[in-house]
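Before a colleague's protein record goes any further, I have to sign it off. What it holds is a sequence and that sequence's fold in token form. Would you go through it and say whether the fold makes sense for this chain? The record follows directly below this note.
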Amino acid sequence: MAKTSMKVKAAKPAKYSTRAYNRCKICGRPHAYLRKYGVCRICFRELAHKGEIPGVKKSSW
């Protein structure tokens, strides 16, 4: 779980555009962020499994 202070810091507009970085909208994780969905890989997997992301379903073979 991300620190609350880091979530707040990421939510503020950056002074310079190069300082901005992405965090997961759900848990605040800074790594393994999927830009198209705005969440990290872990949250993406959970949401896909529940069927809450349109057009995405968990595959198995």
In short: The radius of gyration is 14 Å. The mean pLDDT is 87.
